[in-house]
Amino acid sequence: MVRRIQSHAQSCRTSRKHARPVGAAMKRRNHAIVIIVMALLAALALGSGCLYMLYAHDSANHNQPPASSAAGTRESAEQHAQSDQDTAETSRSDTLDRDAVPSPNATLQKASNRIHAVQSAVDSAARSNGGTWSVYVEDLATGAIVNVNDQPMVAASEIKLYVMLAVQDGIEQGTLNTGGQDIDMLMNQMITVSSNAATNQLVLMLGDGDMATGMQRVTQTAARYGFRDSRQLRALADAGTDGTGTENWTSAADCGRFLKELYQGKLVSEQASRSMLDLLLGQTRRAKIPAGVPNGIQVANKTGELSGVENDAAIIWGKDVSGGDHDYVMVVMTSGVVSSTAQQQIAALSAQVYESMTS
């Protein structure tokens, strides 16, 4: 029994000796596993970082255009910076001065303000000045119109606009029998110095030698071009009337539309429009509408005068203070007025309209 107990004790000691090496091996194995896991984690982290860097580099390449050289890249950057600077300067300029580059709404608002100011000035003149006033103003850029007291008025020498039209139309159609006369000279005299004799010669030419036929042709040509208030019913006389009480007629609106279409090159033909416009630019009678605009401003006009009648029809090539263009048509027709006073009143109204149209 004692021997078995001793043998068992010896066996247990032997087992404990063998057990100690096994525990150490387990520890070493566990430590190796930990190291391997950590190495794997480190490798994963490193791989993720590399992938991120590759992705970032690829994204950068997509977001930037390829450059052939460093100099090209710098040049592009400098141009972009200059563009940004120019944009900023333009924005500051617009903020300080909206007239520099007006927005469409601002432009429309200014145009509306201008035409309202013209309307006010014309209404006031028509009410306060003596006699009957009919006034037409059109902004040639926007087509906005002021048309006060629109009615047929005594034409006086404004009828010569429609004689000029009929002559140019006859030339264009090849139906005008000149009889060997100098049309250019007669037209120049009729418009620039308002010669009644030259006008009557041209009307006779239009009627193949018959005055009544010629006057009818003037009226029919005017109507064909849409000027239905304009009628020549008598010859022109240096005394002002032919003694019959018959008058020639037109309206401020007819004259205004005539001048607008002339300005646009739409009357008869572009070449004919230019020829007629050149005649009006040579006008020598400048005491009414032209007298109200600043020196150096171009005006093409045709006046008309009879006893108690003062008329003027004009194209004005207006300029604002910054040099911007503001072209417009202005026509004033009056009756029952004192001539010297009416001329001054027309010039004063012209000055008001010019200021309003170019502000």
Automatic annotation (TrEMBL):
Region spans: Disordered: 1-25, 63-113
SUPFAM superfamilies: beta-lactamase/transpeptidase-like (SSF56601)
Keyword list, A-Z: Hydrolase, Membrane, Transmembrane, Transmembrane helix
One GO process term, biological-process aspect: beta-lactam antibiotic catabolic process
Any GO molecular function: beta-lactamase activity
Coiled coil: none
Ranges of Basic and acidic residues composition bias in the record: 75-100
Basic residues compositional bias, start-end: 14-25
Annotated Beta-lactamase class A catalytic domain residues: 134-177, 184-334
Gene3D superfamilies xrefs: DD-peptidase/beta-lactamase superfamily
Transmembrane segments: 32-55
Highest rank taxon of the organism: Bacteria
Protein name, entry field: Serine hydrolase
Species of the source: Bifidobacterium olomucense
